[in-house]
Amino acid sequence: MKIHLYLDDWRPHPKGFALARNGEECLMMLRECEVDVLSLDYELGHDQMNGGDVVAAMIAEKLRAKEIYLHTSSPYGRRKMYEMLYEHMPEDVRVHNGPMPEALIREIAEGTR
User: Fold this and answer.
1) Hey, what's the torsion of the CAs at 29, 31, 36, 41, to 10 degrees?
2) DSSP code, position 60
3) Residue 111 domain-assigned?
4) How many domains does the chain have?
5) H or E element, residue 38
6) Residue 58 domain boundaries
7) Running along the chain, 113 residues long, what does each successive block of 10 average in pLDDT?
8) Which residues contact 23 (CB under 8 A, 6 or more apart)?
9) What InterPro entries has UniProt attached to this entry (predicted)?
């Protein structure tokens, strides 16, 4: 099953996205589904995996999405995740160092992507 996946412990997910509230949920969905667009937060709550832990597990398990965006408000977290993804993801995975553009969010909400 092909999905778009949004990892965030607090923010509401955009229409057309499956929501993972924590790192384990995100990894489970990445293992079980084909993920087109993945958008990652970094800070996921006290005593929880963070986005860097999710990215490290993705690398170790060779989990991927076609496109990966980083919507975190943490500059440190964004930099850490981007550097790991850029270094380890295959060339056919598009990694963006920032949040999804509004046009893409609209396309997914309308079901045209």
Assistant:
1) 60
2) H
3) no
4) 1
5) strand 34-40
6) 2-90
7) 96 97 98 98 96 99 98 98 98 98 98 91
8) 7, 44, 48, 49, 50, 51, 53, 54, 57
9) cREC_REC
The CA distance from 59 to 73, in Å, is 23
3-class SS of residue 18: strand
Give domain status of residue 34, yes or no: yes
Read off the CATH number of the domain in which 83 is found.
3.40.50.2300
- The number of beta carbons lying within 10 Å of the beta carbon of residue 87 is 9
- 36 belongs to a structural domain: yes
Rounded to whole angstroms, the Cα distance separating 19 from 3 reads 10
Q: Which amino acid is residue 25, in one-letter code? A: E
Kindly report whether the global pTM for this prediction surpasses the value 0.85. yes
In a domain, 30, yes or no: yes
